[in-house]
Amino acid sequence: MWGAMLHGSPSEFWTENVSGGGIGWATNTIVVLLLIFICQLAIKTGFWFRFRWVAAPATHSYFNLKSPPVSLSLHSQLRISEIISDLDLKKLIDNLDEKLYDNGKWENVIDRRNSSLSYNAKCCKPKDGPLKYLSVTIFENCSAEMLRDFYQDNDYRKKWDKTLIEHEQLQVAESNGTEVGRTIKKFPLLTPREYILAWRVWEGKDRSFYCFTKECEHPLTPRQKKYVPVGFFRSGWRIRKVPGRNACEIKMMHQEDAGLNVEMAKLAFAKGIWSYVCKMENALRKYSAIYGPQPSSAVTAVTLMQKVPPGLDTINNTTDTGHPETAAASATCCQIACEGSGREFSRRPSNKLITNGLIFLGGVICMSRGHSDLGAKVAIAYILSKLTKRSVSSSQRRQA
User: Fold this and answer.
1) Which fold has domain 68-346?
2) Where in this chain does the record put each START domain (predicted)?
3) 364-374 exposure pattern, b = at least 16 Cβ within 10 A, e = fewer
4) 61-73 b/e with 16+ CB inside 10 Å = b?
5) Which of 160, 242, 265, 323 could make a disulfide contact with 283, Cβ separation 3.0–4.6 Å?
């Protein structure tokens, strides 16, 4: 059977199964694809799950901080300086130092390097939140200040990051440097995502820098139906010099819920992140050559950054003192990730993905053999099972 499928002529592919009394392979395939497209379109436009985006974002205990609420009333005085507190910074430091345990197993995702760049990342699935990623990127021949300015220059990011459709600064709190902005990002074959975010930057000892970003609301940006709002976003990084060499590293924690399928998002990340990081490094080299360290008249979170509170800086320094071989440890972790990645990826794609693929393939094969009714039923069962799973997972997120 497989030989016939692989070596059949084009004419056989398009010929209708007249003798069997059914319609042909091509017609059935087009019908199934149209059904899938209509179902996906219905999901996006909200005919079936229109309450998914109207519902308030779920709260997660992952960042259960005793800080002021993130949502801001349109009729109250906007106090963006209270959106991000020192407790958020402490939580970020604990995450970067891997002191928090989310009862999730870490999976090595990628470990790649070249002569001027290295990158490794791992992820885990907490009990009550979206996927959490922890990555370390090391740039050779780069200062911490240059990398900090590059990461925070959103105007320059528009020139090299093709996923960024639009970005605008909304407001800056001069009291503590909290900045609020709106970003629109495109996702292949999906509706663009809208991010309303607030972030702060701190300077620590030994020329280290921290940034923490979280979702918020702002009266200048009412939600638009043509974008999917991202209701949960927590991300942060630490930039510092690599001891003993002319290089700097950025260690990043990232967690967001953009309404994507978890397994597909993991696969897309693993396949595309290295290319993205290489493109980012190329933009960084051009940035340092064109712009260089120069004063800016714009008021941003960087120009208004504050010092890390003494208590938190002491905790961080204690951790570093206890592990002076940070660079060597990072290299060891990379080697372990590299050795384990072969075993990890040998089991991928997951059983769920394989099962779904076989179900769909079975429907197509049945149709190709003339059993169009059976093939259509299998395809419809597959579609309904996927929609049911999405509905259940969406309800669970709202109840969390």
Assistant:
1) Alpha-D-Glucose-1,6-Bisphosphate; Chain A, domain 4 (3.30.530)
2) 106-289
3) bbbbbebbbee
4) ebbeeebeebebe
5) 160
